[in-house]
Amino acid sequence: MQGKLYRSRTNQMLGGVCAGLSRYLNVDVSWVRIIFMLLAVTNGAGLWIYLALWLLLPLEDVEDSTVQANIRASAAEMRGRLDGLGHQAQRTIGSASPQTILLLGGALVVLGVLTFLRRFGWLRWLNLGYLWPLLVIGVGVWMLVRYFKEK
């Protein structure tokens, strides 16, 4: 472990948390990112831990700042990053084909209806834990079919 734990300015994808942790623990940043993604996907803890560290850890060049100052600066940075991601998502969705929007919208509606019905006990037999892998497989197959049709 090396010195002080901080968020990286130079090797950040979102808030610099993973790069800062990787430097502190002296491990490759890819492993830290994979662990956070696995924690986020499996039980959601990775997302909450990442957000908490983003708020609490100082940036690498900031000297002796208070926790309150870190939180204020990190919240402003987070807001700016999320606004940028929102604008990027709008541009991406705006440039998507109508078929893609129809497919994704339909999948979200079906998933929402199934979840709703399961909550009220009408589909107790349906285990939604199996639905996610099937959804991922379906999207992957659809992408491959589309790719090979274009070739």
Beta-strand level of the residues, as a percent range?
A: under 5%
C-alpha geometry? elongated
Strand count, sense and barrel status of the largest sheet are: none
Q: Which runs of at least 5 residues are low in confidence (pLDDT < 50)? A: none
Query: Kindly state the mean pLDDT as a whole number?
Result: 80
Structural class: mainly alpha
Task: Give a brief outline of the structure.
The protein has 6 helices and no strands. The protein has 151 residues and is mostly helical. The chain folds into 2 domains: 17-92, no CATH class; 96-150.
Task: Explain how this protein is built.
With 151 residues, the chain is an all-alpha fold. It folds into 2 domains: 17-92, no CATH class; 96-150. Helices cover 72% and strands 0% of the residues. It contains 6 helices and no strands. The longest helix is centred in the middle third of the chain and has 29 residues, at 67-95. The protein is elongated and about 55 Å long. It starts with 16 loop residues before the first helix and ends with a helix. The model has no long low-confidence stretch (mean pLDDT 80).
